[in-house]
Amino acid sequence: MLGLNLWDYVFIRTCILVLHSIAPLSIIYSLVSVAVPLPVYPPRFLQVWLALEAIFYLVIYLPLRKYLQRPAKHPALLSRDDRRKLFWRCHNSIHDPIQYLRKWFRGASDADIKRENVKDFFRWAFLNTGDPDLAYEEELEEYATEMERLLGREIEPGRGNAKCFRLTLDKVEMSHRSLTWYLCIFVVDTVASISLMYHSFDFHRISFLGILSVFPFRPLSVFAKSNSQVKKLTYWHRPHTSKTKLPVLFIHGIGVGLYPYINFLADINAEGCQDSSDGQVGIIAIEIMSISSRITLTMTDGPTVQSGNGGLTNSLV
């Protein structure tokens, strides 16, 4: 793991700069090499790789960036009573209303967060839209008034310069990841898979079409014998046989998948194996490809996961 000193910071920023520079340099080289003869050419394999990097940016990344800007699919709008109940559930959980507004408004000052800005936020949060509609004006005024009571002051009328987060309406800010980056992810994923198999985990794969929807490609998915009990969700499983210890359901965070947690999962295994007469601690380690530096399908929705939870939990006991 990287530390917190200056050199570690310089190292990681340099790596980011180099990785982000690969695509533009590849495109420039490809265009120049076609237009004019160069006095010196890099090795053949490097020429091919630079061409692939340029093609990946132009043919894959740019269309994908445009595609991801399409409007989000919102759930059906709740009834007025249900929206009010949801509002009060959220409202009653606010312990610091000043910081609550400032953080939702990207750190804006109180002077820039005016009544119309607050109504914009509530319009997105409870009506799933950014378009004003007089039919909902009374409801939004009610929410704004309750926020004033929580703040202990009136919110200045009008519209300020503040812009709130509207996660399903805002433009998707994307950064290009080069083929070189995805090659690194492929290597990391392969190392993680080998390590998990070494620690007696069994991989549960999704359908063949689902396998093709993940980039970089995962060869292990083709040869795995066990099928996942949840659509679009892969996981690693170690059977639970202990009579005195509880099994573990592990969900990783945003990053590169399970690789950073290999030692943690291995330690659980080691602890579970100390008393052989009691059996081993069962573990299911779920993989969420959409937050693991992959190009893949949308994240599995709640109902789909819930429908498969019974099978997963049965595997643990």
From TrEMBL:
The chain crosses the membrane at residues 12-32, 44-64, 179-200. It comes from the Eukaryota. Keywords: Membrane, Transmembrane, Transmembrane helix. PANTHER family: AB HYDROLASE-1 DOMAIN-CONTAINING PROTEIN, UNNAMED PRODUCT. This is Uncharacterized protein. It comes from Photinus pyralis.
